[in-house]
Specification:
The structure holds two protein chains of two kinds. By secondary structure, chain A is mainly alpha-helical. Chain A contains twelve helices and two strands. Classes of the chains: A mainly alpha, B alpha/beta. Bound molecules: adenosine-5'-triphosphate and magnesium ion (MG). Chain A: It is found in: Cell membrane.
C-alpha cells in the first residue's frame, strides 16, 4: 500500500507515519476491513428475514384458523425466550445435519451405512462442507428466526392498532381479505410498528457480533487477532497487547451503525406518517 | 310509457326478509323485513340502541344476520346455514354486491394513508378493475360535485370533519352505486359543518338515488326521505310515508320519540 502513495505525499509524511500507514494497510488489516461485509450482510439479510418471519408470524397469530394461530403463538412466545447465542449455535448445526440426513437417505447405499456404524454423516458422500458464505446465510436465517419472533410481536400489535373503521370501510367497498390485509392493515401499521422495530433492529445489529461463533472470521475475530501482541522478524515487537484499541474501534463502529440506523428510521417514520393523525399528534 | 310495466316486473332494489341478529345473548334485531324501491329514500329512525346501525350493516353484510334473507336487485346474498356463526357463502358474489353499495359512515373512515383523490379512486381501481384515466376523471368530477375539488391532493387528516365526510360521499359515488347507505353521516360534525354535508345528501336524493339513511335529524329525514321506518328494540314499530310517520304517528312510542326529539 505504501508504494501506492504519490511520491510527494510519501515524502511529506515522514518515516514514522509511513510505517504506521503501512502497518494499517497490511494484508491482515485489509482483511479486517473487508470482513465488515460479513457483519453488514448478516445484519441486512437477517433484518429482511426477521421482517419476513415477523409478518408471517403476525399473520399467523391473527389468523382465524386455530392450528395456525396456535403455531404462530408458540413461535412468538417460545422463540422470544431463547438466548440468541444458543440458537445461533443450535440452528446452523441442526440444519446442516438435517440436510446431511436427508441427503444420506438418497445418496448412501445400505452397504455404506452398514460399513460405517455410528459415523456422521452415515457415508462420506453425504458430507456437506459449509464455507463462510453458507455459514453466513445460516447465521442470517438464525437471526431472522430469533428476531422475527420479536418482530412478529411488534407487528401483531401494530396491525391491531390500525383503526377498525378503516378496515371495515375497505370490506364494505368489496376489498378482498388479502387486499384489506396488505393495502390497509400492513400499509398503515408501520407508523405504530416502527418504534418497536427500531429496537429489534438494534438488538439484531448487536447480535451480528456473534458471527465468529460460526467460524466466520468477522470483524470481532480479526480485532482479537490483530490486537494480540505483534512481533515481526524485521521490526521486533511492533506492539504489545493492543486488543482493547481494536475493540474500541469496533465499539465506535457499532455506535456509528446505531447512529445511521436512527437516521434511517427517522426517515422511514416520516414516510410512514404521511397523512396519519398519529404522526401529526406526535410531531 | 313502459315504466309502469317495468316497475311491476322489476323486484325492489333492496329486500330484507325477517332479519334477526344477536350479539351473544343480546337480541338486537328480532325479525325485520324492509324494502326499498329504485330511487327511493328510506329513513331509519329510532332511539339509541334500537338496532338502526346493525340493520344498515346487515345490508352489505358487515354484520351477517343470524336468520333472514338479504336480496339486492333480485339477487339473494348467499349465506351459510342459520345461526350465530353464519357467514357469506360466496366470497366473489359478496364482493361484487358490496362493490355496488356505497356506504358512508358516521366517523368517515377515510383511509388515512391515501390522499383524498386516492381514497375516491381506490375501490373503482382495485375492486371494480376499471381503467385509471377514466376513474381519475370521474373521481375529480365527484370531488367537484361535493365541493372539495381543491382538496384532492390533501390527506384526510388535513381536512375538516365536514370536508372529510364530503370526501367519503365522493368515495361512495365514484363506484357508481345502485344503493347508498348512510349511518348518521352528520352526528360526528359540529352543527355549523352539518349543513354542507346535508346539502350534498339532499342533492343526491333529488337525483333519484336509492338510499337508506340512518339519522337522528328528524327535520332532515322528513325533508329528504320518502319513507320512514321507526325501529324500537329490534322491531319495526311503525313505517310509512314521511308525511304520515312524522305528521300523524299512530304508535304511542313513536309519538313519544318524536316529542322527545323536539325538546332536545
Ligand atoms: N359488534 C357488537 N357486539 C356487541 N354488541 C353490539 C355490537 N354492535 C352493536 N351492539 C349492540 O347492539 C345494540 C344495537 O346497536 P346499534 O348500533 O344497532 O344501535 P343504533 O340504533 O344504531 O344506536 P345509535 O343510535 O346509538 O347509533 C346496542 O345495544 C349495541 O350495544
Ligand atoms: Mg348507530
Amino acid at each position: 500500500m505504501v508504494d501506492l502513495l504519490p511520491a510527494w505525499l510519501a515524502d511529506g509524511l515522514g518515516d514514522e507515519a509511513l510505517f504506521w500507514f503501512g502497518y494499517l494497510t497490511d494484508g491482515r488489516h485489509l482483511a479486517w476491513y473487508s470482513s465488515v461485509q460479513f457483519t453488514l450482510i448478516a445484519a441486512l439479510l437477517g433484518g429482511l428475514c426477521a421482517l419476513g418471519f415477523g409478518l408471517l408470524g403476525a399473520g399467523m397469530v391473527g389468523s382465524r384458523a386455530l392450528p395456525v394461530r396456535l403455531f404462530g403463538k408458540a413461535y412468538v412466545n417460545m422463540v422470544r425466550g431463547v438466548p440468541d447465542v444458543l440458537f445461533f449455535l443450535f440452528f446452523p448445526l441442526a440444519f446442516e445435519q438435517g440436510v446431511e440426513w436427508m441427503a444420506s437417505s438418497v445418496i448412501c447405499s445400505p452397504e455404506d451405512i452398514a460399513a460405517n456404524p455410528g459415523r456422521w454423516p452415515p457415508c462420506p458422500a453425504a458430507n456437506w462442507i459449509l464455507g463462510t458464505w453458507e455459514y453466513l446465510l445460516l447465521a442470517s436465517v438464525s437471526l431472522g428466526i430469533v428476531y422475527g419472533a420479536f418482530t412478529a410481536n411488534v407487528i401483531h400489535g401494530a396491525l391491531n392498532a390500525v383503526p377498525r373503521g378503516q378496515i371495515e370501510a375497505a370490506r364494505a367497498y368489496g376489498f378482498s381479505a388479502s387486499q384489506v390485509f396488505w393495502r390497509i392493515r400492513v400499509r398503515q401499521m408501520w407508523i405504530y410498528a416502527l418504534p418497536g422495530l427500531s429496537n429489534v433492529w438494534l438488538l439484531l445489529i448487536k447480535a451480528t457480533a456473534l458471527l465468529s461463533l460460526l467460524q466466520i472470521v468477522d470483524i470481532v475475530s480479526w480485532a482479537g487477532r490483530l490486537g494480540a501482541p505483534n512481533f515481526t522478524p524485521s521490526a521486533g515487537l511492533v506492539h504489545p497487547d493492543w486488543r482493547w484499541y481494536y475493540y474500541l474501534v469496533l465499539l465506535l463502529f457499532y455506535v456509528l451503525l446505531t447512529f445511521l440506523s436512527e437516521k434511517g428510521f427517522a426517515a422511514l417514520t416520516r414516510w410512514a406518517g404521511r397523512g396519519m393523525a398519529v404522526a401529526e399528534a406526535r410531531a | 310509457m313502459i315504466s309502469a310495466a317495468n316497475s311491476s316486473a322489476q323486484p325492489p332494489l333492496l329486500q330484507l326478509e325477517d332479519i334477526h341478529k344477536s350479539f351473544g345473548t343480546l337480541e338486537v334485531l328480532r325479525g325485520i323485513s324492509l324494502t326499498a324501491g329504485e330511487g327511493e329514500v328510506v329513513a331509519l329512525i329510532g332511539s339509541s340502541g334500537s338496532g338502526k346501525s346493525t340493520l344498515l350493516r346487515c345490508i352489505n353484510l358487515l354484520e351477517v344476520p343470524d336468520r333472514g334473507r338479504v336480496v339486492i336487485g333480485g339477487e339473494a346474498v348467499a349465506m351459510t346455514s342459520e345461526g350465530p356463526h353464519r357467514r357469506a357463502a360466496d366470497e366473489k358474489q359478496l364482493r361484487r354486491i358490496r362493490s355496488g353499495i356505497g356506504m358512508v359512515f358516521q366517523s368517515f373512515n377515510l383511509w388515512s394513508h391515501m390522499s383524498v383523490l386516492d381514497n375516491v379512486m381506490a375501490a373503482p381501481l382495485q375492486v371494480q378493475g376499471r381503467e385509471k384515466a377514466e376513474v381519475r376523471e370521474e373521481a375529480l368530477a365527484m370531488l367537484e360535485k361535493v365541493g372539495i375539488a381543491q382538496k384532492a391532493d390533501a390527506f384526510p387528516a388535513q381536512l375538516s370533519g365536514g370536508q372529510q365526510q364530503r370526501a367519503a360521499i365522493a368515495r361512495a359515488l365514484c363506484i357508481n352505486p345502485r344503493l347508498m347507505l348512510f349511518d348518521e353521516p352528520t352526528s360526528a360534525l359540529d352543527p355549523e359543518l352539518e349543513g354542507e354535508v346535508l346539502r350534498v345528501i339532499r342533492l343526491l336524493a333529488e337525483e333519484g338515488r336509492t338510499m337508506v339513511l340512518v339519522t337522528h335529524d328528524m327535520e332532515f329525514a322528513r325533508s329528504v326521505a320518502r319513507r320512514a321506518v321507526f325501529l324500537h328494540e329490534g322491531l319495526i314499530e311503525e313505517e310509512g310515508p314521511v308525511r304520515e310517520v312524522f305528521g300523524a304517528p299512530r304508535s304511542e312510542r313513536l309519538q313519544r320519540f318524536l316529542a322527545a326529539g323536539q325538546h332536545a
